[in-house]
Amino acid sequence: MSSELLAPLDLAFWHLETADHPMHLGALARFDPGPGDPGDVLELLAERAAAIPRLRMRVQDVLLPVGGAAWSVDKTFDVHRHVRHIHVPDAGSDGGGSDGGGSDGGPPGGLPGGFTAEAVRLAGELMERPLERGLPPWEMYLLTGEPGGPFAVLVKLHHALADGMRAIAIGAGIFDEIAGARAMASRAAGRRRPRPVPPRSWLPGPLNVAGAARGRIEELGRALGVGASVVRASRLDPRGTPALTAAASGTRRLATVDLDLEEVRRVRRVTGGTANDVLLAVFAGALRHWMLERGERLPIADPRALVPVSRRRPGGAPGPGNTFSAYLLDLPIGDPDPLGRLDSVRRGMDRNKAAGPSRGAGAVAVLADQLPPLAHRFGAPLAGGAARMLFDVLVTNVPLPRSTLSLGGSPLRALHPMAPLARGQALAVAMSPYGGQVHIGLVADGKAVPDVDRLAACMADELAELLKLTDTSD
Questions:
Q1: What is the pLDDT of residues 196-255, one digit of tens each?
Q2: What total number of domains does the chain contain?
Q3: What's the CATH code of the domain at 85?
Q4: Cα distances (Å, whole numbers) of residue 283 to 147, 301, 328, 329, 438
Q5: d(CA 358, CA 154)
Q6: Can you tell me the distance from the alpha carbon of 30 to that of 276, in angstroms, rounded to the nearest whole number?
Q7: Can you spell out the DSSP letters for 81-119?
Q8: Domain that holds residue 374
Q9: What's the superkingdom here (predicted)?
C-alpha cells in the first residue's frame, strides 16, 4: 500500500474537523486482570498496532485532483508516538472481575465504580484532544491502576480513516485471537506461490464505459433526491432542549452503561421489531426522564436522531474508509407511555427501512460522494453548521465480533464505543453488544451536558421499566 486517494466522504470528515470538534471515533476497552505486567501489555499493543498496515498511513495533500488528499505510508513511522501508558491515580479497586455495576460497590444500574470510573473520566479528557494531523491519525492509551488489577485501553481513530465497522476491523487487530489468526494467514500466504496476473489494458472497454456512465447517472439522480429531502427535513428554527443545542465548549465528558442483552431481547420478543428498536426506545425514554429531572420543559417538537446504517455488503470484507448512510428518527419523548414510545420508534424505523438507506434526508453521506474535493476543502465550515438543522443527537449501533476476545491473556470485559460530536451537537451515543451485554458510550460536551452520567443511569431505569411492562410470567 503506497498511496490512495481519500474518498469524498473521508475527505469531508478530514476537513470538517475543528479544535472544538475533533472528528475521531473512540472505544474504551476494559480488561480483567491478567498474567502480564503493564510494560508487557504496552509492548504487545505497540507490536500489534505496528503490524496493521492501515495504521502506518497518514494524510497528504495532492496536486490532482485539486483540493484532494491521499493516504501515503509514513516513512518515519514510530509506533511509540501513538501508543502510550498512563497510570490512573487513586483508582481504587473494582474487586478484580467486576463489570463496573453495583457488585463492586459502585453506583447501581450498571454504572462504573472504582478503577472503571476513573478510566472513564480520563478517557473523556483524552477524547477532547485532536489527533496530530502530520502523523497517522490514531492513538492508543493503556490505562492501568493498582498492580494486578483491571486495566483499560482507549483507542482513537480519525473518522477519515474509517467508519464504525471499519474501525472495529482495524482495532480488533490488537486482540490475541485476531492477531493470532492474522499471523497464521500471513504465514500461509507466504508459503503459497503468487499466481501470475495476465496483462490487462488500462483502457476501459465499451461495456465498462457504458456501465460506468449508467452508474454515475443513477448516483446523481439519487443524490438529487436526497438533497431535496434534506432541504425539506431541515429546521431553520430548531427548538430542542437547551442541553442538546448549547454552544460548543470544546470539552468532553464520557459516561458508560451496560445493559443486559437478554433483557433487551425479552422485550423485543413481546413487542416485536428489532433489538435496535428497543435500544432506541430505551434512549428516547431515558432522554425524557433526564430532561424532566433537570426541570426542563419537553420541547414542542420531538428531538431527532441520526441513526447510521452501513452500506457495506453483508459478509463482505470491510474496505478502506467510510461506507455508510443514515436514517432520521424522531425520538418520541413527548409520549409518557414507554410502550407507546417503543411502538413509535418501531414504526419510524420500519418506514426508514422500507425507503432504504440511500434515500431520505438521513442519507446525507450520499451527497458527500458527489462533491469534488475542492468543495469539501472550502465548503466544510458551511456544511459543518448544517448538522444542527438536520438532527439533534447521533445514536449508532456498532457490532463487535461474537467470539471471546482477550489481550495478553486478559479477558475483554467490556468495550464502550464513542462517536464524535458534529458541530452544533452536544451528545452522541454509541452501542455495542458483546458478551451478553450492550455496552453503551455517551460522549457529551462537558459544559452543555455535565450530568451525562445521569442520562446513562436513566437508560438502565428505562429498560427495567420496559421489562416490567412486558413481563409475561404471570
A1: 544 444 344 444 444 444 444 444 445 545 555 555 555 655 556 778 878 888 899 999
A2: 2
A3: 3.30.559.10
A4: 37, 17, 15, 12, 13
A5: 33
A6: 23
A7: GTEEEEE-TT----TTT--SSGGGTS-STT---HHHHHH
A8: 215-404+414-469
A9: Bacteria
Task: Decide: helix, strand or coil at residue 305.
Answer: strand
Please say whether the beta carbons of 430 and 421 come within 8 A: no
- Find the range with the poorest average confidence among 24-33, 319-328, 413-422, 428-437: 319-328
Q: Residue 162 and residue 400: Cα distance in Å, rounded?
A: 15
The model's pLDDT over 353-362, given as tens digits with 9 standing for 90+, comes to: 888 766 665 5
| Domain end position, chosen among 142, 164, 184 | 184
Residue 180 sits in the same domain as residue 225: no
Yes or no: say if 233 and 7 are a contact pair by the CB < 8 Å rule.
no
The verdict on residue 288 lying in a domain is: yes
Is residue 445 classed as helix, strand or coil in its secondary structure?
Answer: strand
* Selection from 405, 404, 407 nearest residue 40 by Cα: 407
| Nearest by Cα to 365 from 306, 406, 299, 447 | 306
Any domain includes 203:
no
**Residue 299 sits in a domain of what CATH number?**
3.30.559.30
Considering the domain architecture, whether residues 301 and 390 belong to the same structural domain is answered as: yes
Q: Round to whole Å and give the CA distance between 235 and 299.
A: 14
Q: Assess whether 179 and 222 both reside in one domain.
A: no
- Asked, for residue 107, whether it belongs to a domain, the answer is yes
**Amino acid at residue number 261:** L
Distance, in Å, from the CA atom of 291 to the CA atom of 242, rounded to the nearest integer, reads 10
